[in-house]
């Protein structure tokens, strides 16, 4: 690939299950000018509302690979992913290495266990009846409250997040032999019921690069109430690559 030369670093941002790329728009007011942010949209919502939903994790990974690869006009790039987006970011980097492509300079791994442990406290949410499914999803927070009172919005929302949850919950890692030569930052909510503190620390053993970890007040969706703190970390981290 022919990459353009720039003093900026490109940051691809991957949402959580049920999330929109527009979630990351609020970062713009705090983000440094040397970072070119590129939020990724999952199918079935936003600007991709007519695209078919994911059937499994492999569908999601292939889609992410295509979505990022077509926007990858520089070898100086980083990834940020939360929850489902976190695991997709990691597997995307592994795919790039396997394809002998340029891997990211840095990955921000937020709100998810590494593959060998993130299933420990999960169950198959995507198989629950609608009422139970919605109850569990809202227990973790992170979703717009108006959906609860808008039946039309709720009906449209259920298949989207169910497909994303299925992709997350059916994920089975293909074992890797080599570590990734990539720097990482791990972000974790102190009260996260999905990504437990002791498990998220294990990301470090999968990489040869530098490692930092930050803990935030809150549960699985700690990113909602810590925008300025998180963007400050992103800014201070990525300045090292420009």
Automatic annotation (TrEMBL):
<feature type="domain" description="Thioesterase">
    <location>
        <begin position="10"/>
        <end position="236"/>
    </location>
</feature>
<protein>
    <submittedName>
        <fullName>Oleoyl-(Acyl-carrier-protein) hydrolase</fullName>
        <ecNumber>3.1.2.14</ecNumber>
    </submittedName>
</protein>
<dbReference type="Pfam" id="PF00975">
    <property type="entry name" value="Thioesterase"/>
</dbReference>
<dbReference type="GO" id="GO:0016297">
    <property type="term" value="F:fatty acyl-[ACP] hydrolase activity"/>
</dbReference>
<dbReference type="GO" id="GO:0008610">
    <property type="term" value="P:lipid biosynthetic process"/>
</dbReference>
<dbReference type="InterPro" id="IPR012223">
    <property type="entry name" value="TEII"/>
</dbReference>
<dbReference type="InterPro" id="IPR029058">
    <property type="entry name" value="AB_hydrolase_fold"/>
</dbReference>
<dbReference type="InterPro" id="IPR001031">
    <property type="entry name" value="Thioesterase"/>
</dbReference>
<keyword id="KW-0378">Hydrolase</keyword>
<comment type="similarity">
    <text>Belongs to the thioesterase family.</text>
</comment>
């Amino acid at each position: 690939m022919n990459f353009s030369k720039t003093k900026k670093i490109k940051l691809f941002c991957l949402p959580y299950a049920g999330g929109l790329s527009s979630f990351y728009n609020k970062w713009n007011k705090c983000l440094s000018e040397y970072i070119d942010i590129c939020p990724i949209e999952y199918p079935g919502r936003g600007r991709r509302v007519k695209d078919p939903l994911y059937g499994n994790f492999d569908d999601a990974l292939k889609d992410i690979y295509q979505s990022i690869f077509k926007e990858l006009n520089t070898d100086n790039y980083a990834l940020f992913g939360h929850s489902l987006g976190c695991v997709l970011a990691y597997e995307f980097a592994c795919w790039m290495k396997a394809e002998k492509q340029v891997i990211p300079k840095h990955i921000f791994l937020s709100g998810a266990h590494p593959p060998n442990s993130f299933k420990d406290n999960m169950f198959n949410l995507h198989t629950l009846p609608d009422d139970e499914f919605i109850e569990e999803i809202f227990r973790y927070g992170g979703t717009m409250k108006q959906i609860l009172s808008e039946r039309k919005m709720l009906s449209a929302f259920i298949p989207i997040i169910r497909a994303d949850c299925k992709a997350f919950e059916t994920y089975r890692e293909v074992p890797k032999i080599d570590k990734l030569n990539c720097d990482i930052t791990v972000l974790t909510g102190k009260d996260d019921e999905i990504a437990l503190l002791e498990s998220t620390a294990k990301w470090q053993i999968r990489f040869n690069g530098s490692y930092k970890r930050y803990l935030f007040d809150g549960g699985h969706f700690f990113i909602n109430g810590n925008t300025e703190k998180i963007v400050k970390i992103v800014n201070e981290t990525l300045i090292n690559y420009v």
